[in-house]
Each structure stands twice: as structure tokens, then as C-alpha cells.
Design goal:
This protein is α/β, with parallel strands linked by helices. It contains eleven helices and eleven strands.
């Protein structure tokens, strides 16, 4: 497998927001425009837990929340599968760039995230009992919402971190849905520091067996409204500060830590997805971006996965943290150019 390096000194079609203008343009230009074209909705989950059924009756968060950004004469539809503890709102800047380049966009809040239904009362905890439930949710969203919106034009996947693991899993289970897929720093192996994965898995198994599976992992903490830029996964201070303001003001965006069940499932899912037999099921061309300064996910599982699929490329983004899409404009512009060129490769054939 040959690992390429993102070429930054290249002609780019998209001019991205600079640090100095970021807040003003997001507030006065980007958000009002997106609001004018957005169609939001809710999709019922295929299987309701007792907690979901209760919440559906009380109606604070019914089913799975989604946002659609339709446009006439689109080049295709980009489906976004985002990362752990994120939300649709966090991707508004990226959605704006995709839309400006001629794409429709469809994005859904994963269960336990944003405005979607939750299985635990503590809004800061992300919980899932089966990782495959995320995949089934995404498949239902694609089949019932994104495909009708696409109107027979190509579907493209953009998937980050946890959403990247969901996306890779999806490509293995449903190989015919997406024309091309971008995996951005996919969570195919968690960085657990000095703790080996098998030990972390045993700890999670023990807590689940004790009936504590929905409790917060002891290594993690509740939402910190004062999270500093230095502690973030972004390399753009303006982007970090902008979204952190929304998080402080609305508990829907304050997910910040995992349950023991989620930990167990995340470890299992990454190991399963990169297995040779599974990876070889991927028929979709994949472009995988790896962040050089990523401290949340491991590089080696990403490299194993991309070397085992039939049609995969890996691009290293130097001096980037985990959230490559929240880099400064000098990185974002060549990054987006790489994505657009990748999505366009089949056009006209």
C-alpha cells in the first residue's frame, strides 16, 4: 500500500473561511443560507427500546433527526456519517462547501447524539448496545430518505471517525449503495494509550455483566464547557470556539463520553471491519484520509483496512489533528479539492 501525502500547493476551486472572518461569515452568511434550503425531519427507528418508546410518547426527541439540503441539477448526493459525540450542526460549514460545489447533502444524527432519541438519561453519555444498530440506522436512512432525494443520481459517502467505522461496516454489508466513499480519520482502532485493547474489552465486559453497561467509562468525564482549543481535535481555533459556544448553550450538543457498552462495541466493531474477509467485501472505491497528529484513533488499523479492500487510496494530511475537516483554510482548500476530484472520477464515463 502506497501512502500519499496531501499536496497543499495546488490550484483549488474552493475558497474556505479564514480564521479572522469565520464567526461573522458563519453567523451572517452560512447559517442563514443553509436555513433557507434545509428540510429537516425525523425517521422512526426500526427497533424501539423501552426508553425510546417512552421518549416517543413524551416526544422530546422522536426517532432519528436528520437534515436535507436539496438542490436542483445536483451532481449527486453526499451522505454524511459523523463521529462520536458530534451532531448535524457541527458539519454546517462542510455542508455549505459541498452545496456550493453542486452536491445535495443528507445528514442524520446518530442515535444517542444531537437531536435524536437516546437510551440514557444523562445527555453527556453516548450509549449503544450493538454497533450494528448504527449501520442499520444509516441503511434505513439511505434507503428511505437519501435515495428518494437523489432521484437516481449517484450517492457519495463522507464518513468521519466513529462514522467512518459505521461507513466501512456499511460498505461491507451493502456494497452497492454508494458510488464512492471518503473515510476521514476512521475509528478502526481506538487509541487506548498504554491499555491494550483486550484489557479494555475485559473491563467493559465486566461492567456490562454487572449491569453497569450504560454507565460512563471511568476514564472519561462529563461535558466540559471550558474545553480549551489545545485539548480539542481541531487545528482551527475559530472553528473550535464557534461550535463550543453552541455546545455550552444547548444540552443536545453536550455528548462527551462513552458508556461501557459503547466501549465494548467500538472495540469489537473496529476489529471486525478490518478483518480480511470483511474488508474484501468492499466494492466501492474508497479514499481514506489519515491525520498525522491524530491522538484518538490508531493509524495501523486504517492501513490494514485500505490495503485489504479492492479499490482504496490513503492520503496523509501532515500536521493535522483528528478533525481534519476543522483545519484552517490553507489545509481545508487542498483537502476539499482532493475530495471533489475523487467524487468526480467516474463522471462522464
Amino acid at each position: 500500500m502506497k501512502k500519499e501525502v496531501l499536496v497543499r500547493d495546488r490550484p483549488c476551486r474552493m475558497k474556505c473561511l479564514t480564521e479572522e472572518e469565520y464567526r461573522q461569515r458563519m453567523t451572517e452568511e452560512v447559517e442563514p443560507f443553509l436555513k433557507s434550503v434545509c428540510r429537516d425531519g425525523r425517521m422512526k427507528t426500526e427497533r424501539l427500546s423501552l426508553q425510546e418508546a417512552k421518549e416517543m410518547q413524551e416526544a422530546p426527541r422522536e426517532g432519528l433527526y436528520y437534515e436535507l439540503y436539496p438542490r436542483q441539477d445536483s451532481k449527486g448526493t453526499i451522505v454524511i456519517s459523523y463521529g462520536f459525540s458530534e451532531s448535524c450542526l457541527k458539519y454546517h460549514e462542510l455542508i455549505w462547501y459541498f452545496y456550493r460545489e453542486g452536491y445535495q447533502v443528507a445528514v442524520m444524527d446518530h442515535r444517542g447524539h444531537g437531536k435524536s432519541v437516546r437510551d440514557v438519561e444523562d445527555v453527556t453519555i453516548v450509549h449503544i448496545d450493538l454497533f450494528s444498530r448504527y449501520v442499520k440506522d444509516l441503511h434505513r436512512f439511505v434507503q428511505t430518505v437519501a435515495k428518494p432525494m437523489a432521484d437516481k443520481k449517484p450517492l457519495y459517502l463522507y464518513a468521519h471517525s466513529m462514522g467512518g467505522c459505521i461507513g466501512a461496516f456499511y460498505l461491507e454489508q451493502y456494497p452497492g449503495d454508494f458510488a464512492r466513499a471518503v473515510l476521514n480519520a476512521p475509528m478502526l482502532g481506538l487509541n487506548l494509550g498504554a491499555c491494550p485493547p483486550w484489557a479494555a474489552r475485559i473491563l467493559c465486559d465486566i461492567q456490562v455483566a454487572r449491569g453497569e453497561g450504560k454507565q460512563r467509562l471511568f476514564t472519561q468525564a462529563p461535558f466540559d464547557p471550558e474545553e480549551t482549543f489545545a485539548d480539542s481535535c481541531a487545528t482551527s481555533q475559530a472553528r473550535h470556539a464557534y461550535y463550543q459556544g453552541f455546545r455550552r448553550d444547548d444540552e443536545a450538543y453536550q455528548t462527551s463520553s462513552a458508556s461501557y457498552y459503547w466501549g465494548k462495541e467500538a472495540i469489537n466493531a473496529g476489529r471486525f471491519v478490518i478483518g480480511t474477509t470483511q474488508a474484501q467485501k468492499v466494492k466501492t472505491p474508497v479514499l481514506l484520509f489519515q491525520a498525522q497528529e491524530d491522538t484518538l484513533v490508531k493509524a495501523a488499523p486504517q492501513e490494514k483496512f485500505i490495503s485489504r479492500i479492492p479499490d482504496g487510496r490513503m492520503v496523509l494530511v501532515e500536521h493535522a489533528k483528528h478533525e481534519i475537516y476543522r483545519s484552517t483554510a490553507d489545509v481545508l482548500e487542498p483537502y476539499l479539492e482532493e475530495i471533489f476530484q475523487f467524487y468526480e472520477q467516474d463522471r462522464g464515463r
